[in-house]
Amino acid sequence: MNLIKEASNANKIDEHGSWDFGAEFDRKGRGSALNWDLYAYGFDYFSKKLLVIIQIRQYVLRKKGYYPQIRKNYYLLGRNEDGHSFAHSIESNVIHSAIRKNKDVILSVQNWIFGHDYKKIIRQGDIALVPIKKATAQPIEGSQLLIEESHQLTAEMICQNGNVYAKNPTLVHLKDVHPTVKGNGWFKVMVANRASYWKFAAPTID
């Protein structure tokens, strides 16, 4: 699948390197293998672009007769607005729970990523504007705030108490990957949840 191939070789993979699928074993059966399985696929509610969920599995046998080491990562894969692929690490229990309950696996994962009903948010990459009735936190000085070093938030009022809230916000992505988004009213600014992962197969960076 092209999407998985592109994600595995993405130039935005972090310092742990790309995904090198394949196997290499010696005559005694010692060695390692890295492979992937497709768990779900669907289309984004907003963009209608293809999204897939995969498991990446590492098998390592260090000594003959020993138990192998098996480790797994799970990712949501898709394409950003600029066409580049992304891989977002997700929790396996979210996937398996959705499958057991016969729910939309893609949407369930997106709900977990943003901690809210995905259909009701305004999204810009890994940042979301989640609608709320009103913020109870104290306002900060100024009308701008940098989120995750790449998302410029401008609003009529910005409040902060460990979380960030904004009235009539505008989000500009400074790396020009995602289009500018705006909201009317009060919003909580959410940074996407990412699952922990084994470093043999790292996620991409937004």
Question: Explain this structure to me?
Answer:
This protein is mainly beta and 206 residues long. Helix content is 13%, strand content 40%. It has helices at residues 2-8, 92-100, 105-114, and strands spanning 22-25, 31-43, 50-61, 69-79, 85-89, 122-124, 127-131, 138-139, 144-147, 151-154, 157-160, 164-167, 170-173, 181-182, 186-191. The protein has a six-stranded antiparallel sheet, with no helix packed on it. A five-stranded antiparallel sheet has the order 1-2-3-4-5. A hairpin with a 7-residue loop joins strand 3 and strand 4. Helix 2 (92-100) crosses helix 3 (105-114). Mean pLDDT is 91; it is low at 12-17.
The gist of it:
The protein has three helices and 15 strands.
Main sheet, how many strands, which sense, barrel?
6 strands, antiparallel
Along the chain, the helix and strand elements come as: HEEEEEHHEEEEEEEEEE
- Taking strands numbered 1, 2, ... along the chain, how are they ordered across the largest sheet? 6-7-15-12-11-8
Quickly give the structural class: mainly beta
Share of helical residues: 10-25%
Query: pLDDT below 50 for ≥5 consecutive residues: which ranges?
Result: 12-17
Shape: elongated
Q: Determine the N-to-C terminus distance.
A: 22 Å
Q: How many alpha or pi helices? A: 3
Strand content: 35-45%
Radius of gyration: 20 Å
Total beta strand runs: 15
Total domain modules: 2
pLDDT averaged residue by residue:
91
